[in-house]
User: Which sequence fits this backbone?
């Protein structure tokens, strides 16, 4: 049961929703070890995305929607997360190409490309206390689930769960990239806001898959 | 949160309207996308200089647009780097055919967004070079951090590179002078109180009534250490020590001493700080030949101060003294 | 109380040492008694201009000493008028034989101490004239008050009278122009937060988290009324109304619009205020032909703003535009 | 039993002492309806007076000591109270002239001249909520006590008591002079700091008289 454009746009809408709901939480996390704008930044970006989503042509494929998110985030978010998350979507869009339906392998490719895009721009390594610490376990878990022959929905659920654990696992870390790196030891005990928002994005993907499985043609 | 604002979402939009109304003799403001250019931009044959970054550090950068300094400033949302679009638009607006320098403070967001804008400008055949400012000695410059931050030294780079461009230096030369200033300036700051980002509505951090944050960043990022309040002289000594250690400032050197207010500090306090800083430098045989005191690179209403020391030579001194006509820095015309 | 000071008793003494170190190219500082004079004082044949008052309002007045503005500034203790001795000493130091103008803000203490100093100067054959500045429309000018206070309009008087003296006007003419500016300028301020006088160590008043003080004085004296925080535009409208009522500003008038920060207000907020003020004036057919935005007459770290409107004519505009070279206001040289 | 130089310098020393002790109280009163410096201003002035008091020649008379206080306060206090209180001492010194011993009539003349000096400089009327509201009842009470044939110590005690009542009586008033006049109705309920410090000065005079009676030659 592959996932198509309905899933993709549902994922995006759910992300916008969940980012808006968690705006204050993300701002608070970022106030603690950054500059207090992460929730505001993403909320501004996804609000702009929502406004554009209806303009997608009726024959749009998942890659088109991902590219729209990419360019919109890049041109509205700013900060570190704008180029990073934007590039994630841009590379994800490239990875799925013109494919109208994404199977498990395509989803793993999408997630892997997204993560690689963030690394390409931000040069962070796992354990640096960045969004990579949510994305990398998510990519690994999705690949394992896919190798186990799990469904698309199960693959995304595995990714989301791993991202959530990854985000939580940033708490004891010292940061080596981004603003939190200025804090040294004092970042310990705080969750990385970008890892947290990444887990929200991935949970939205899984929720959308659970919900729309069967609706896509 | 008590602020003289309307909707937090409109802070930057409304401020630039006011800025244009107040300084229409010096600048023109584009509102969509938002950037500020000097009135006579582009100046044909002159290297264009663009800087920018999150808002909330005023007068940086808009207050430094004008003759002898920046050609354009690109203000992002409060404490958030602008996106590539307005940076690209500003770059095009100031391109006089001699190339454009981007002066970028070293924050991941600024670096990435300016980088993208530079790529896009190159695609439109505008030669863009970037100089990354990282003068903040509070942060260890190591593999384990995002590198030093760009703070108050930025205003010195903008003034001096601006003068080089104004006298007709080519892009290589302007880049070289900007890099030289960045290489020779060191800054360290302290916060007595936090700032409140309008959309956050809460203080960026919490300090007890008797605590100060040594090595504060200009976005309310925590610094090196939190200590008990001390007399001003002791604080100045703490700020100057890592500056003087870091660069081999030597007896006999001429320097520019900048005491920069973080936004909410009364001017008397800046001068009390200046007094001690000048005293310490004099004891080390370092001569303060140029000075700057005031709010130049701020963090909204934060109370605190940063001290910058720039090692001067004849060229830098001459460029510093050259005429400048901006909203926030002006002499010689 | 968190301040970058050493001993509260030494705040002014140490600040003027720092001021001298930073601006020794423009001023000379006398330390006992304390006053600041322009470097080339006395200027032979020129009317000397002396102002002063309590400290804590910086850059007023020391920041305005220099070519084209004040010849001397006499800073008292924080928020306390200086005594006659330093005023007399400063008056003598700037007497170039053409007489001396005292620009005095209308507070009982300033008026009495300058009065005594003027008497003593007269006894030494120096012709002294005083102009009392009372631009604050927050206070009703009636038999039942000490009269209007002198607030941010003072900087406009100092600049314009300074230019008149610099071009060679005689004492009568300089007095006349200072009186004209005072007659044509009106100011009203608002505070969002109180200030803390160093020796008091406690806030000058208490405002709830959602309260502001309309008509605040520059020493933290309470104002007209305490109201709930409103959007910036509504506050600006409240400040402008009594200004425009008080002076017959009329459609077709040219004015200078000054938006003055109280010391702790971020610059973005000043421009948001400026935007609305310019808008309201435009709606009334009043043309803003000259502008000034920044911290000029402050109350330590107080957050707040004042708006001043000065009705211009050709003479005042020309004197405003004339070159000035002081620590805090500079153009044309 | 008249009062001479010992009383005068004791009065001055006690005043310096009591102003220093009440510095914070006077600052607080002035914070409420003024600018929070009154206690600091007077303390600075009387501290300077103390430093100079020992320089008085051994044959000094009360008028010399009062003149020393006057010029020292005028040149160290600043603000409104410096010229006002300074002028009070200046006029008081003139009133007692070279007289080495002050009897009841001389004390009444001293207090009257002091009060008149303040009025001359400050143009305040009774009821304006200023230091005059302590001085005027003090002058009246001293005159009445003297007319009743009271002793010098009793005369000064009557003056101090009346000044204390006068200071208290400023609380319900609206101010018409000085900084408090800017407050309009809002000054109601607050005691005028200058009236309060004046009552301290006069109480010090009475205490010095009670103590030194008999010591003066
Ligand atoms: N070099 C990097 N690589 C990967 N992620 C990064 C990097 N730098 C920062 N981040 C992420 O960006 C997040 C902060 O984003 P945001 O607050 O929107 O931007 P800014 O730091 O510019 O204010 C951090 O929590 C971190 O997860
Ligand atoms: N015109 C006046 N006449 C008499 N007393 C006055 C007058 N103006 C002010 N005062 C007195 O001065 C006191 C304030 O003194 P102080 O705080 O030292 O000076 P300032 O008001 O300059 O800060 C007031 O409480 C009041 O008693
Ligand atoms: Mg952030
Ligand atoms: Mg940011
Ligand atoms: Mg005072
Ligand atoms: Mg007072």
Assistant:
């Amino acid at each position: 049961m592959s996932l198509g454009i309905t899933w993709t746009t549902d994922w995006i809408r759910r992300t916008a929703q969940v980012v808006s709901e968690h705006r204050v939480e993300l701002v608070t996390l970022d106030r603690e070890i950054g500059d207090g704008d992460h929730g505001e930044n993403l909320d501004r970006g996804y609000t702009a995305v929502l406004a554009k989503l209806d303009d997608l042509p009726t024959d749009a494929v998942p890659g088109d929607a991902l590219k729209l998110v990419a360019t919109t985030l890049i041109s509205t978010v700013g900060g570190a997360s704008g180029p990073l998350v934007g590039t994630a979507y841009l590379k994800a869009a490239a990875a799925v190409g013109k494919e109208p339906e994404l199977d498990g392998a395509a989803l793993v490719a999408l997630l892997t490309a997204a993560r690689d895009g963030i690394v390409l721009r931000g040069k962070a390594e796992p354990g640096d206390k960045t969004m990579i610490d949510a994305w990398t376990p998510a990519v690994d878990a999705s690949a394992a689930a896919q190798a186990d022959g799990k469904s698309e929905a199960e693959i995304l659920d595995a990714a989301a769960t791993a991202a959530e654990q990854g985000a939580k696992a940033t708490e004891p870390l010292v940061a080596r990239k981004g603003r939190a790196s200025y804090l040294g030891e004092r970042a310990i005990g705080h969750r990385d806001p970008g890892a947290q928002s990444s887990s929200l994005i991935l949970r939205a993907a899984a929720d959308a898959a659970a919900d729309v499985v069967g609706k896509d043609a | 949160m008590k602020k003289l604002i309307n909707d937090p979402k409109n802070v930057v939009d409304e401020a630039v309207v006011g800025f244009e109304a107040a300084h229409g003799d010096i600048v023109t403001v584009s509102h969509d996308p938002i950037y500020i250019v000097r009135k006579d931009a582009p100046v044909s044959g002159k290297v264009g200089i663009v800087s920018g970054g999150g808002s909330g550090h005023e007068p940086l950068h808009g207050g430094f647009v004008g003759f002898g300094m920046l050609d354009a400033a690109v203000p992002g949302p409060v404490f958030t780097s602008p996106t590539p679009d307005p940076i690209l638009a500003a770059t095009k607006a100031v391109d006089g055919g001699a190339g454009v320098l981007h002066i970028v403070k070293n924050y991941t967001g600024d670096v990435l967004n300016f980088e993208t804008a530079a790529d896009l400008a190159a695609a439109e055949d505008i030669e863009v070079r970037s100089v990354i400012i990282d003068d903040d000695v509070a942060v260890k410059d190591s593999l384990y951090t995002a590198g030093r931050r760009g703070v108050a030294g930025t205003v010195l780079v903008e003034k001096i590179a601006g003068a080089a461009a104004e006298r007709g230096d080519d892009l290589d030369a302007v880049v070289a002078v900007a890099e030289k200033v960045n290489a020779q300036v060191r800054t360290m700051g302290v916060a007595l109180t936090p700032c409140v980002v309008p959309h956050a509505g809460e203080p960026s951090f919490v300090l007890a009534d008797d605590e100060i944050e040594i090595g504060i960043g200009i976005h309310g990022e925590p610094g090196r250490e939190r200590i008990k309040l001390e007399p001003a002289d002791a604080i100045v000594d703490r700020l100057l020590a890592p500056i003087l250690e870091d660069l081999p400032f030597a007896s006999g050197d001429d320097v520019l001493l900048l005491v920069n207010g973080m936004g909410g500090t009364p001017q008397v306090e800046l001068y009390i700080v200046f007094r001690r800083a000048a005293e310490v430098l004099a004891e080390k045989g370092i001569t303060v030949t140029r000075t700057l005191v005031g709010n130049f690179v701020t963090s909204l209403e934060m109370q605190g101060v940063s001290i910058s020391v720039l090692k001067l030579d004849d060229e830098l001194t001459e460029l510093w003294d050259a005429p400048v006509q901006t909203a926030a820095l002006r002499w010689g015309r």
